[in-house]
Write a structure and sequence with these properties.
Order of helices and strands of chain B: HEEEEEHHHE
Strand content of chain A: 35-45%
Radius of gyration of chain B: 15 Å
Strand content of chain B: 25-35%
Number of helices of chain A: 3
Strand order of the largest sheet of chain A: 4-3-2-6-7
Oligomer: heterodimer
Distance between the termini of chain A: 41 Å
Shape of chain A: globular
Largest sheet of chain B: 5 strands, antiparallel
Helix content of chain A: 10-25%
Number of helices of chain B: 4
Largest interface: A-B, 24 and 20 residues
Number of strands of chain B: 6
Distance between the termini of chain B: 35 Å
Structural class of chain A: alpha+beta
Largest sheet of chain A: 5 strands, mixed
Number of domains of chain A: 1
Structural class of chain B: alpha+beta
């Protein structure tokens, strides 16, 4: 009986730990009404020291322009394996990009940062257009961008 | 922790890739070794239906073919490969879309 109880406890713990390992996160990025073509965006995670961890989304499909997303390009070394299956269309001015994905719980409230690099053809590249710490307290609070991004919000 | 997740994902992807290759119309006897991962892409060696040796490289998540090398023997030529029609991965996704769907593919909208 004792063993049965212990087994059940372990099973419940295992199920619960599996359920809490990832969390849904929605990233909303609204662009400024700048003059120019569609913007390329790299949304990625770094640790507290600013070291690249993981690519969340790349807006823009031509990989030859990815070098202009300078911070991300340096961290990810633009390896295909880093962004494979995580790319989509570029975002034109005034539009809002919404990305919903599963993110490991270990990234939240652990000093990790969400960063966005942006680039527009024949215009300046913006490394760290947005930098926000990934915390539960910061969820839902809009942050202003320094370049082509008007506002960025994440919801957990 | 990230490495552990990557290893699990790699196993799942490798199984999916093996199934895809076995069911494909031009590769038979395909083999995928553990050390055949280069820059995160899967390198597969095998023979085609005419016995020509082939080497293919696939993207890890989308399983799109990135590189295909064929070593033709004396009787073979490139005509078999010049009229393949729809790429293998696209055919697979049309026939069974749920199988090719990625586990954690983000949902994206632009409004």
């Amino acid at each position: 009986m004792k063993y049965l109880t212990m087994t059940l406890c372990f099973f419940c713990f295992f199920v619960m730990s599996n359920q809490t390992s990832a969390r849904k996160i929605t990233l909303t990025t609204e662009l400024q009404n700048y003059s120019g073509d569609g913007a390329y965006l790299a949304i990625y995670l770094t640790n507290a020291k600013g070291q690249y961890q993981e690519t969340l989304w790349i807006a823009g499909q031509k990989s030859k322009y990815y070098k202009h997303l300078t911070g991300w390009a340096r961290g990810s070394r633009m390896r295909t394996s880093e962004y494979d299956g995580l790319t989509g269309a570029s975002v034109t001015r005034g539009k809002t990009l919404t990305v919903t994905l599963d993110l490991a719980d270990s990234y939240i409230d652990s000093g990790f940062q969400l960063k966005i690099d942006t680039s527009v053809e024949d215009q300046r590249d913006n490394r760290n257009d947005v930098v926000v710490p990934l915390t539960t307290a910061g969820a839902g609070k809009p942050s202003a961008g320094r370049g082509y991004i008007k506002a960025f919000t994440y919801v957990l | 922790m990230k490495n552990a997740i990557n290893k699990t994902e790699a196993k799942i992807t490798k199984n999916k890739l093996a199934m895809l290759l076995i069911s494909s119309f031009f590769i038979s006897g395909a083999a995928l070794a553990d050390d055949d991962v280069d820059d995160g892409c899967y390198e597969v060696k095998g023979v085609d239906r005419k016995g020509n040796r082939i080497k293919a490289t696939f993207s890890p998540a989308s399983l799109k073919i990135r590189e295909l090398k064929i070593k033709f023997d004396m009787s073979g030529d490139a005509s078999d490969y010049l009229d393949l029609g729809t790429p293998m991965t696209s055919m697979q996704s049309e026939s069974n879309p749920s199988q090719n769907k990625q586990k954690n593919k983000p949902k994206v909208t632009i409004d």
